[in-house]
Amino acid sequence: MQHNDSPDTTYTTTWSHGRGDVRFFNRPDGSRLRYYTAGTGPPLVLMHTVRTQLDYFQRVIPRLWDHYTVYALDLPGMGWSDIVPGTRYEEPELRAAVVEFTGGLNLQGVTLAGESLGAALALLASIDLKGKVSRVVAFNSYDYPSGLERGNWLARFIITSVRLPGIGPVFAGLEPRLIMRAVLHGGFVDKSRLPEDFLVELLRSGRRKGYSRVARAIYRSLKGFNRARHRYPQVSVPVTLVYGDRDWSRSAERDQVARSLPDVQRITLPRTGHFSSLERPDDVARILLGAVST
């Protein structure tokens, strides 16, 4: 297990201007999840997208910390959370980490919110956290097949190759800045909204020993989130379901998710791709602030 003596704060401090704290949450198995917390008010847990980390919400959190106590989480093995050899990164394991984190901090009346992979986790974890969660806000939920591959031809080539036996580990370890930028650009309408320093940070955390195995495991686990949609009717709290009009998901897939949720409000963001928290942070914050006022 790879341990840092203290949670990495280097990049987080730049956008938070030193406000709040970066900490580790100790899981029962001895591994640790890095998280950032700041603000006052009811608790809000934020979960990031595929292949990013808590700093993904850098443009949203400063708009929220006067209204929520924000907890932004590095999912297992991602960002600067511990990498544990042999760990599985399927939907049940990632969901269990969110449940442990929320329960371990004894958060009550919590809003679970996330984007992409994080949105699907928010929906699914709310079922296991019944009685602790007040609302879910899901942005561009990643619960359909072949999502990343819809971004552009390079993303389709890289992700397909990473999943293959034999050559998959080789491709998982290839993340030059030019390719990483091009793959992420597939999730933006306005490509200038991808911060270059954030891209550099993703590459920095991605150079950790064992990270390529984590990335490959995550990419290969995504089909499990599609299968887990059958649990959505068990979500018992109000859900705000938000999609960019240019998200990778298709209209029929969005409709299917909405129909499966008992209490749902739908919002579509115009001129927005998959990474709305970077592309449209004002709108994302407005939606989340609307949730705390209801």
3D architecture notes:
The structure is a single chain. The chain has 294 residues and is an alpha/beta fold. The chain contains twelve helices and eight strands. It has helices spanning 10-16, 91-104, 117-128, 153-163, 168-172, 177-185, 196-205, 211-221, 223-227, 251-260, 276-279, 281-293, and strands spanning 21-26, 32-39, 43-47, 69-73, 110-115, 133-139, 239-244, 264-269. The protein has an eight-stranded mixed β-sheet, with helices on both faces.
Number of domains: 1
Number of strands: 8
For CATH, the homologous superfamily is named as Alpha/Beta hydrolase fold, catalytic domain
What share of residues is helical? 25-40%
Inertia-based shape: globular
CATH domain class: Alpha Beta
CATH topology: Rossmann fold
Q: Going across the major beta sheet, what is the strand order?
A: 1-2-4-3-5-6-7-8
In the predicted model, the low-confidence regions spanning at least 5 consecutive residues are none
The main β sheet shows up as:
8 strands, mixed
Give the helix/strand class: alpha/beta
Total DSSP helices: 12
Kindly state the mean pLDDT as a whole number? 91
What is the ordering of alpha helices and beta strands? HEEEEHEHEHHHHHHEHEHH
Task: Name the CATH architecture.
Answer: 3-Layer(aba) Sandwich
Short key terms for the protein model shown above:
single chain, 294 residues, alpha/beta, Rossmann fold, 8 strands, 38% helix, 17% strand
Concise account of the structure shown:
The protein has 294 residues and is an alpha/beta fold.
